[in-house]
Design a protein that fits this description.
single chain, 249 residues, alpha/beta, Ribosomal Protein L25, Chain P, Alpha/beta knot, seven-stranded parallel sheet, five-stranded mixed sheet, 29% strand
C-alpha cells in the first residue's frame, strides 16, 4: 500500500490495534512514533500523516493536507462484460490502478445472469477501487456502474468520442497496435465476457462505430486482455517529462 485513502479530510484519526491498516503500519511498514506516511482523500488532496502509537489502543495519525491535485485519470472508458466475481474483482482493482476514468459492467448474452447478484456489488466493489488507487499513489477513482445489457450503455455509446475499440479475437478487422491515437484523445474500449461476444453484440458494436481489434492469436483471460490493451493504448498519455516537476531520463 503506497497511500492511505480516506473518505474525507480530517485533522486526526485513531485506528484500533486490530484494524488491518494498523497492522499494516506496524508489521509491514514498521512505522515508529514520529514517522510520516502518505495519505489522501478520495478525489481530493494528498497529505502527510504523523504516526503516534497509543499503548493498548492502536495508532493515532495527525494529518496535514496539501492543496488538491489534478486528476491523473486516463481518458479511457471501459465497457466490460460481467464475469465471475473473482474475475470482476481483478478488473476493478486493475482499472483503478491503471487510472481509467470509467468502468461500465454489463450483463452479456454469453454471461451468467447471477453474476450481477454477487455480494461483490454491495460494497466490495468500491473497496477494490480504493485499493487500486492506493497502489497507484493516486486519490482519483474511476466512475463505476453496472447495467443490465450492452444496449443500455446509452451515454457510453452516444459519446462524441471518435476512438471506439472492441477487443475480439474471432472477427477483428485490425490488430490493436495499428490504432494510432492523437495525444490525450478519448478512447472507449469494450471487452466481452469470458465466453466472448454474441453475434447480436458484435452487430451493436459495429453500429455504434466500434472497430473490432485483436491482440494476436492467443485467447486471453478477460482481466489479462484488458490490462494488455490499456497498456498498449496508454502510451499516448505518458508525459515526455516526469510528474510534479521531476525529470525522467
Amino acid at each position: 500500500m503506497n497511500l492511505f485513502l480516506l473518505d474525507k479530510a480530517v485533522e486526526e484519526i485513531l485506528w484500533p490495534s486490530n484494524d488491518q491498516r494498523t497492522v499494516h503500519i506496524g508489521k509491514t511498514l514498521k512505522a515508529k512514533d514520529g514517522d510520516s506516511l502518505d495519505f489522501g482523500v478520495i478525489n481530493g488532496p494528498r497529505g502527510k500523516g504523523t504516526v503516534k502509537w497509543i499503548d493498548g489502543e492502536g495508532v493515532k495519525i495527525v494529518l496535514q493536507w496539501n492543496t488538491q491535485h489534478e486528476s491523473d485519470l486516463l481518458p479511457i472508458s471501459l465497457l466490460v462484460g460481467l464475469a465471475r466475481p473473482q474475475t470482476s474483482r481483478k478488473v476493478l482493482h486493475q482499472a483503478a490502478s491503471l487510472g481509467l476514468k470509467e468502468v461500465i459492467f454489463f450483463n452479456a448474452d454469453k454471461g451468467e445472469p447471477s453474476y450481477a447478484q454477487s455480494s461483490l456489488w454491495e460494497r466490495e466493489w468500491k473497496d477494490l477501487l480504493v485499493k487500486g488507487a492506493e497502489q497507484a499513489f493516486s486519490c482519483h477513482l474511476p466512475n463505476c456502474q453496472k447495467i443490465t445489457g450492452i444496449e443500455k450503455s446509452n451515454e457510453f455509446s452516444k459519446s462524441s468520442c471518435k476512438v471506439k475499440i472492441a477487443l475480439d479475437i474471432y472477427e477483428a478487422e485490425n490488430c490493436l497496435s495499428s490504432v494510432s491515437l492523437e495525444k490525450n484523445a478519448s478512447v472507449q474500449l469494450a471487452i466481452g465476457p469470458e465466453r466472448g461476444w454474441s453475434a447480436k453484440e458484435r452487430d451493436w458494436l459495429r453500429q455504434q462505430g466500434f472497430i473490432l481489434c485483436h491482440m494476436g492469436q492467443r485467447v486471453l483471460r478477460q482481466e489479462t486482455a484488458f490490462v494488455a490493451a490499456v497498456g498498449c493504448l496508454s502510451h499516448a498519455y505518458w508525459p515526455e517529462r516526469g510528474w510534479d516537476g521531476i525529470k525522467t531520463r
